Amino acid sequence: MSNNPPYMTNGIQAAVVEWIRALDLEIISLLLSRAWPLALLTTTELRWRPTVLTDTDNVVRLDRRQRLVRWDRRPPNEIFLEGFVPIVTREDPDWEETDLYGFAKNNHPSIFVSTTKTQRNKKKYVWTPRNANRGIVYQYEIYAPGGVDVNDSFSDASPWPNQMEVAFPGGIQNIYIRSARELHNGRVQRIWINPNFLDPGDLEPIVSSSRTLQVIWRVNHPDGGNKDGRSERSTSSYDDLMYGGTGNVQEDTFGDESNNPKPIADDRPPYMTNGIQAAVVEWIRALDLKIISLLLSRACPVALLGISQLQWRPIEVTDTDDVVRLDRRQRLIRCDRRPPNEIFLEGFVPIVIRENPNWEETDLYGFVKNNHPSIFVSTTKTQRNKKSMSEHRVLLIAE
């Protein structure tokens, strides 16, 4: 966005709410400015977090490499799947729901999601809610583009300057959330690793301890849904931990050890897979892996029943160059006539998206052989073998 002087920003790129993410930066800026307090109009202005910024330790970083934190009662089974969705998502928010100053001061329901910067002054400090040591609480670690810098926007009038808040209109997609600490009554129980995190590179390691279990999350993880009753009261309670008036800056003393254990995954046999996590079709993405597996298996050719079986791509794959990688780090390719204005906005949507596909539309073998209309989207692996190149197909269901 180089045409937005005096600085460049990634603005609303992180938003999980599609209609907000699709807005031009000038439009969303006008939407937020209409609710600006009259008393502050001549002394303050909306300040998006710049693409290149000076962090709290005076080191210049890309916005994607600035460590942000969000305290939340919702577990990884929700947040790593859906991202941080704001309370207000409808396309006609009222004045109060787009009021950044009111949100920063009172934390009322809005289109914003709140985060706080990691404060670095020799040691590491994090704004922490005073009730973070009660019940089950999660500290999510975020590396996201854009957002609004609340202190820069309101200067001396910022309601809670020690929070160093960065507010995200439209929320934060799950690909920008790296990890989560699960705390029970203030004690860290485990570190959750998000396998879908889009790593910008050159990040500091995830801080942990040799005594703390690190777990690679997967959809519907049996331990990934822990939460206590206070998170069930109402939707607005999701945000109560981030209210700036009920917290203070504390030193982060957790996990000062240099040699932390490698994250482990659960022992689901015979292999672990992210299955249909990439799907853009919501009803398919919401299915249990066993259900979608049964749906695909019903169309398996009779002649192949005894000699073949459905094989999901595992989380850890041996790539075509014999290097072991996470599935998210294996390069896939798809040739398509549709332009980026469609694909980058909507993703690869299969031809068949209705909730009652017929037998042929779920026939994997028939799709691979004849490429007929179906719930699948086809890709090919990058073949890494010196100069040779051959097709290795990977079927992404309803992506």
Automatic annotation (TrEMBL):
Domain (Pierisin-like) ranges: 68-197, 332-390
One Pfam family matching this protein: Scabin-like
Coiled coil (UniProt feature): none
Source taxon at top rank: Eukaryota
InterPro entries xref list: Pierisin-like_dom (IPR054695)
Protein name: Pierisin-like domain-containing protein
Organism: Pieris brassicae (White butterfly)
Upper taxonomic lineage: Eukaryota, Metazoa, Ecdysozoa, Arthropoda, Hexapoda
